[in-house]
Amino acid sequence: MKTLTAGTPAPAFTLQNQNDEPVSLADFKGKKVLAYFYPKAMTPGCTVQACGLRDSKAELDEFNVEVLGISIDAVKRLPKFIERDNLNFTLLSDEDHAVADQFGVWGEKKFMGKIYDGLHRISFLIDENGVIEHVFNKFKTKDHHEVVLAYLKENS
């Protein structure tokens, strides 16, 4: 698994959102995009991470950042996550993990002694021109939003 790094153009992608509508990275040209990959909707860690981003929306808006949550969940699971936790950003379904592969976040994981392929919890800040500006790969789910905001404040 080779994760994309800062300075690399982000792969162009189109995935279905929670309303089963296509959303493309190109739709956000002129904005920054936080593409955050998370393993599974409505699990404890993913919920804490999503709620932190939800509660930071006003601050993220100040930095012109659009949040896209990407998982391998089926489209039909996504509206439930949004409704249950009042999420105020777009969730995308990457069921065949093709986009995760392009970003280099799909690969071997270890959990409770088992080794399996899965989605790694990594976020990419993509700049207004579609280039990866920063990769967030060292954070806890509960402080993910704080790490992102600290980076934005330091580098704006």
Overview of this structure, please?
The chain has 156 residues and is α+β, with helices and mostly antiparallel strands. The protein has five helices and nine strands. It has helices spanning 44-55, 57-62, 78-85, 98-103, 144-154, and strands at 14-17, 22-24, 32-37, 65-71, 90-93, 106-111, 114-119, 123-126, 132-136. The strands form two sheets. Strands 2-1-5-4-3-8-9 form a seven-stranded mixed sheet. A two-stranded antiparallel ribbon has the order 6-7. It is globular, with a radius of gyration of 14 Å. The relative contact order is 0.25. The mean pLDDT is 96.
Strand tally, please? 9
Class based on secondary structure composition and strand pairing: alpha+beta
Low-pLDDT residue intervals, each spanning 5 or more residues = none
Distance between the termini: 31 Å
- Number of helix segments? 5
The rough form would be described as globular
SS strand fraction: 25-35%
Q: State the helical fraction.
A: 25-40%
What is the string of SSEs from the N terminus onward? EEEHHEHEHEEEEH
Largest sheet, spatial ordering of strands: 2-1-5-4-3-8-9
Mean pLDDT, as a whole number?
Answer: 96
Biggest sheet descriptor: 7 strands, mixed
Q: Rg from C-alpha positions?
A: 14 Å
